[in-house]
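4.2 Preliminary Data

To establish feasibility before requesting continued support, the project team ran the inverse folding procedure on a target of 472 residues. The structure was first converted into the token representation described in Section 3, and no sequence information of any kind was made available to the design step. The complete token record follows.
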């Protein structure tokens, strides 16, 4: 494993040197073989394992400083309170990936907190990031999970754990906000140059490279949020410190994947006002970009910044339309809006499962509507929608091929909250089999995995209203 330390070269205004502090009796319980191979990381190498888990000093490992808008309010100094960036590694194509340990112990940015993560939240992040990867959504990834005999206190004593995750970068919107808010304009410029050189070098020959980079960030963010909406993913804590400058989904806490359709759904029980409710995510993405662009107020006029932001909405809308049309098997988006509007009314009223409905639709044949009718109370509303749907979908294409195509974009498996809950309970008692079985189907959620059919089903009654919160 060849560790690089490019970020560390930026200097002490950008981070504090920190080492991973191992947990008591920590154990490597899972590592991601495919990802490890891609990154040239050999887990059978004792020295590599020791480096990754904090038993060996890593020169230049560090915790980053950043700020962030949290639930609408600005916190001028946050930083990695429990995270350590070990360094960067190159994949086979020469692309850099950060290696970051979460739950690594206290850092200068921990404030009053313990710097640790519990097994529950670590498993939740592992599963969610790999599920998103399986769905083809830009995301950080899980490389390895360690559990321990280390007690970590939340609402109750829990098992301490660490996650090693990878990301194209850990630079967040909040990094730029930090330097701007503290009037550290030289460092802000240094960060901008670094980001441009390291991640947006293809834009360096543009007449205005920084502007081109920002437009790219706006569009990446728009596409990320469009993808979330298309699979029913709710992030739960869309603070600007949880938004990557590269448009990767990052920091999985009290997230959720929609089960019964409800576009007003609030997955995070600590989000009392529903700021990050499902239907608000597109607007919050824009709000966050606005915060990011404010940090560029010395670079551009207000009008220029507004022009940059204007790239958001059309990009999000067109990408979302494309994704939803593919989910429905339509050849174009002409009828999409009224069709979705009418469909969502039915789904909401009937409380149909978002994932199961679309997968079902990708198996449905025009002359067998009863298969769907048996699932609903208001048969007329469903029948009306189906008539409308088939009149648009049936446009002379080979419908079997359309169905097959639909199954490549409508997953059979999604990370249901009760499944994560079961995997966590088992892992807490030392049994990682449910976690592994779940991981397997989430990694390729469009495949049938007939032996794991049970994992594609709706939650039983006990699992329908489990609460998740910011506690992690
Ligand atoms: P999050 O909501 O998990 O993205 O965290 C927001 C901020 O709180 C980040 O700066 C984290 O590093 C910090 N933080 C969260 N949990 C802990 C913890 N247990 N110990 C120290 N810092 C934490
Ligand atoms: Mg965070």
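Position-by-position output of the design step:
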């Amino acid at each position: 494993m060849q560790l690089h330390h490019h970020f560390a070269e930026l200097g002490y205004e950008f981070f504090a040197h920190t080492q991973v502090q191992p947990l008591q009796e920590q154990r490597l319980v899972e590592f991601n073989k495919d990802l490890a191979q891609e990154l040239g990381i050999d887990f059978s190498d004792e020295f590599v394992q020791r480096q990754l888990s904090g038993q060996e000093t890593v020169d230049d490992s560090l915790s980053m400083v950043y700020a962030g808008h949290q639930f609408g309010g600005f916190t001028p100094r946050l930083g990695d309170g429990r995270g350590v960036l070990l360094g960067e590694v190159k994949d086979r194509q020469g692309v850099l990936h950060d290696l970051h340990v979460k739950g690594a112990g206290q850092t200068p940015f921990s404030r009053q907190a313990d710097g640790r993560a519990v097994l529950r939240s670590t498993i939740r992040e592992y599963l969610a990031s790999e599920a998103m990867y399986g769905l083809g959504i830009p995301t950080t990834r899980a490389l390895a999970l360690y559990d321990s005999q280390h007690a970590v206190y939340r609402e109750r004593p829990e098992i301490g754990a660490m996650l090693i995750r990878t990301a194209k970068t850990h630079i967040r919107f909040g990094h730029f906000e930090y330097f701007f808010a503290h009037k550290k304009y030289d460092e802000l410029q240094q960060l901008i140059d670094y980001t441009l050189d390291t991640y947006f070098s293809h834009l360096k020959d543009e007449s205005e490279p920084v502007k081109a980079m920002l437009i790219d960030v706006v569009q990446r963010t728009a596409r990320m949020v469009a993808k979330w909406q298309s699979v029913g993913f709710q992030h739960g804590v869309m603070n600007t410190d949880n938004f990557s400058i590269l448009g990767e989904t990052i920091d999985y806490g009290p997230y959720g994947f929609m089960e019964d359709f409800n576009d007003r759904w609030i997955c995070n029980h600590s989000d009392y006002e529903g700021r990050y409710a499902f239907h608000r995510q597109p607007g919050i993405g824009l709000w966050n970009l606005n915060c990011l662009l404010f940090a560029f107020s010395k670079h551009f006029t207000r009008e220029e910044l507004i022009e940059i932001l204007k790239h958001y909405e059309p990009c999000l809308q067109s990408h979302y339309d494309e994704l939803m049309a593919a989910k429905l098997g339509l050849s174009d988006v002409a009828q999409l809006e009224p069709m979705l509007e009418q469909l969502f009314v039915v789904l909401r009223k009937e409380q149909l499962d978002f994932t199961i409905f679309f997968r079902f639709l990708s198996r449905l044949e025009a002359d067998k509507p009863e298969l769907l009718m048996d699932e609903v109370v208001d048969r007329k509303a469903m029948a009306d929608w189906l008539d409308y749907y088939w009149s648009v979908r049936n446009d002379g294409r080979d419908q079997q091929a359309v169905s097959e195509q639909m199954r490549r974009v409508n997953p059979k498996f999604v990370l249901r909250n009760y499944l994560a809950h079961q995997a966590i309970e088992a892992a807490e008692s030392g049994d990682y089999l449910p976690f592994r079985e779940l991981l397997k189907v989430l990694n390729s959620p469009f495949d049938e995995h007939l032996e794991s059919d049970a994992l594609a089903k709706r939650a039983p009654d006990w699992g329908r209203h489990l609460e998740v919160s910011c506690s992690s």
